[in-house]
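Q: Structure tokens for this one, please.
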Amino acid sequence: MSRRPASPESEQIARRAYGSFAERYDAAAPTKPHNALYERPASLSLLGDVAGLDVVDAGCGSGICTEKLARSGARVRAFDVTPEMLDLARKRCAGLDVDIREGDLGKPLDWLSSDSADAILCSLALDYVEDLKPVFAEFHRIVRPGGHLVFSMGHPMRDWADLRARGDANYFATNLWGLHWGGFGLPNPYVESYRRPLQDILNGLADAGWRLDRFVEPLPVAEMEAADPEHFEELNFSPAFICVRAIK
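A: Here is the predicted structure, written as tokens:
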């Protein structure tokens, strides 16, 4: 575990982390309770019916949500910063109406035209971006008027309450921290992400022109009680993530 101030050299933290255990992630994440029975149902519920819509899956990882969106009738454009994840996403989505390419949330998304998407899904990817304002502005450019953005992130207060994440940082600071993750096999991958105050997330969203429509601190679905009773109890006591829907 480590914590240090955010810096430009950390822009590719997601690529470094996920490239080291992409196949193990892909094998575990479709059924891993925190994903399959907690965050993913909450985010997809906020997204709603996507049949016939143009949807961008931003930070698509190995394409788990990409496949679900395409099989639900969406035309999907997906991107991720990690080449190893993209290879897995292309295999998972072979034959579906999906365009998958490499792209970095921390840089302009030039290949996505303005007003070209009905919705954007960004599931647990923004924690790897230091400055959210340019990302929210790019998302706003890409979505058509009346379209929506759904994203999920680590809960800022949950992370700050954890000394491993907080270190000696002030709640109002943005800090980069790392942890060896369990649940994906050995060796435990070392993953870094940014922790920031809630106001920076929501004000950054508003400054980019988005209107907050729904803010959710999700509860695990009932099936998680049998699959992972310890975390089911924990997540019913305090949330690990936030899920947000905003309208253009």
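A few notes: The radius of gyration is 17 Å. The chain has eleven helices and ten strands.
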